[in-house]
Amino acid sequence: MNAVATIDWHDQIFETLQDHDVKQVYHVPDAGHGKLIEACQKSNSIRTVALTTEEEGIPLAAGAWLGGQRSVLLMQSSGVGNTINLMGMTKTLRFPFLTLITMRGDYGEFNSWQYPMGQGTPKVLEAMGVLLYSVDNAAEVKATVDAAARSAFNGGQAVAVLLRQKLIGIKNFGKK
Asked: Which of 31, 32, 113, 145 is deepest in the core (most CB within 10 A)?
């Protein structure tokens, strides 16, 4: 078994955030990001901020950048719709922005309410000028998040990494 297969993808993301000197992580509660959020909360080098709604993370990211710090917004695809109005800030104010999005309404989804935003997320983000990177399996996580962080923090771009349902796992609420 190779090293990549034995490392949890959440751990790979956490390590990559540390490699890129990310100091602030914004999030709403999300089971898909749960292990990553927990790792960030335990870290002495990363400040986590729980949000009441996803769009709060965009002006916080702008403020972090102005204050000389790098940040990441963690959210689920169902929350992307909440951010669209403020997503324009990333282009207007020209600051780097990185978001990691756990996808729903994707591979094997059981909840019909998740399909509209899950299917619309890539289109909406592209329409707002956000670069998209997508990950389906754990072997691609570290390289993809690293490339996204480079594009955001070194290239000054707004970048979203879509963590697909094949990666995060199919939810089976109510099934035993």
From this structure: 145
Tokens read off for 31? 């089971």
Taking the alpha carbons at both ends of the chain, their separation in whole angstroms is 30
Buried b / exposed e across 112-135, counting CB within 10 Å, b at 16+? eebeebbbebbebbeebebbebeb
Rounded Cα distance between 138 and 159, Å, is 19
Query: CA-based Rg of the chain, rounded to a whole angstrom?
Result: 15
Q: Give the residues across from 101 on adjacent strands.
A: 75, 162
CB neighbourhood size of 144 (10 A): 21
pLDDT tens profile 69-90: 999 999 999 999 999 999 999 9
3-156 — its CATH code?
3.40.50.970
What torsion, rounded to 10 degrees, do the Cα atoms 68, 69, 75, 77 define? 50
- What's the pTM? 0.91
d(CA 83, CA 92): 15
Q: Locate 61 and state its tokens.
A: 């990211």
Nearest to 9 by CA among 171, 149, 143, 103: 143
Q: What are 8-58's pLDDT values in tens digits?
A: 999 999 999 999 999 999 999 988 999 999 999 999 999 999 999 999 999
